[in-house]
Amino acid sequence: MRARARRWLTLVPLLSVAAPVFAADDAGRTLYLRYCAACHGRDGRGDGPVAPALGEKPTDLTQLAAGHGGEYPLEDVVEAIDGTRTVRAHGVSEMPVWGEVFRPDPAAPLDQQVEAGGRVLGIARYLRSLQGPAPSR
User: Fold this and answer.
1) Which of 10, 20, 26, 45 has CA atoms 20 to 30 A from the CA of 110?
2) What does the CA dihedral 12, 16, 99, 104 come to, rounded to 10 degrees?
3) Exposed/middle/buried for 95, CB within 10 Å: 0-12, 13-18, 19+?
4) Which residue range(s) make up the domain with 19?
């Protein structure tokens, strides 16, 4: 198991007990609209107001599960949000603006780590709620 996954597995029980509000779809939606919608669009389809100015069209976040055989790739989404997984359109190693906001600092006190992880998980859960049917070809 990857070290990153092991760390998340240790935080999941804390997030589910100590910070359920962070995982709520409403909290995730609010964070998504604040930090992600400018590029990915209000509905997650990659059509945000900044999208035309970007070199590459932002990912249609409503098709993440469809692109993974119908299974929502939670771990990949979490790692893309917190900047630990390289997303080509987001820069070399992290989202250029929000990686530091969403990456839990391992040296921070536990409550701050849980809060940061809760924000990431909240957005990831909200994105799961946006998953639609696979596009027709």
Assistant:
1) 26
2) -60
3) buried
4) 3-129
Nearest Cα neighbor of 11 from 95, 127, 126, 124 is 124
The pTM of the full predicted model, rounded to 2 decimals, is 0.72
CA distances from 53 to 38, 64, 126 (A): 11, 23, 26
Domain assignment present for residue 136? The answer is: no
Q: How many independent structural domains does the chain possess? A: 1
Q: Which residue has the tokens 């995982």?
A: 23
Q: Is residue 135 domain-resident?
A: no
**C-alpha–C-alpha distance, residues 66 and 136, integer Å:** 11
CB of 124 closer than 8 Å to CB of 107: no
If you ran DSSP here, which 8-state letter would residue 103 be given?
S
Residue showing tokens 């962070």: 22
